[in-house]
């Protein structure tokens, strides 16, 4: 007769099972988890769109004339693995609502430590006909200047890349629309890109003059006679830096990157604000920008920087929905706790399904 298993045998079986499960978990953890996205439809220009002259040619330095054309709509965005799902949705929304989608050039800025090949392949697989370039941003160029803020996500060096666009993009690119990755457009981006900047303004953005502007800076700032004079002879208003039209030529001539860095250096010595990359922009530009209609940045849909609670749209028409704040629509949808307005983001989500790559 077969021998009945002893208590010792059961202990051995239990230990073997525990070690097997632990090994399986370790193997699973070693496999890089990535995301797979569906291919988007191809979008075509309408008959009214201007033809980009010489779009198949190259300039003397190897840069495509299409990339440098003033008739192109130039869009700049940051790109990383954490927010790529939002970036893909944003690109789809831009193309879908554009009357001249083939005339749009995307300028993606990625961290120098990111896997550029993976990012390029991901974009190309979903948008095979997209006109785009990826630029490498050296995190160390700004890391030394970053101070901790009220939300750790705001301290990512890539959040500060918008201050370096004039240096990163080719000098032939003279005007761009900068967009965050947590937004979608429901209108033609060419309308926003055509914003007139007047004779002197460097950038345009929706202003919110009813916001408490003083709250964006510390008591240390306002109690300093020297620092508080920054806004003398200006009528500063809050504006969200997630949607901006920027004249890169004027930025370069005015050396505005250096001006922003100077404020960040002051912040390192004396804490004058709590948010990340926004206050330096306000210090340099608030009160001297061209105001854009609020429809182009219905922001704050991600709630505040602490809880990310649901919010409603601001009154008025909508051309762009922006989930600025802690709550991101893809995170809330995946967690089965979406806010009502997240349903407006969902149709642009290209995520197919997560899968594991064998190591």
TrEMBL record:
Compartments where located: Membrane
Key words, A-Z: Glycosyltransferase, Signal, Signal-anchor, Transferase, Transmembrane
Gene3D superfamilies registered for this protein in UniProt: Spore Coat Polysaccharide Biosynthesis Protein SpsA, Chain A (3.90.550.10)
Family to which the UniProt record says this protein belongs: Belongs to the glycosyltransferase 8 family.
Pathway membership: Glycan metabolism; pectin biosynthesis
Signal peptide residues on this chain, from the entry's feature table: 1-24
Pfam families attached to this UniProt entry: Glyco_transf_8
UniProt enzyme class: transferase
Record lineage: Eukaryota, Viridiplantae, Streptophyta, Embryophyta, Tracheophyta
InterPro entries: Glyco_trans_8, Glycosyltrans_8_dom-fam, Nucleotide-diphossugar_trans
Enzyme Commission number: 2.4.1.-
Membrane topology, record value: Single-pass type II membrane protein
Name of the protein in its database record: Hexosyltransferase
Main location: membrane
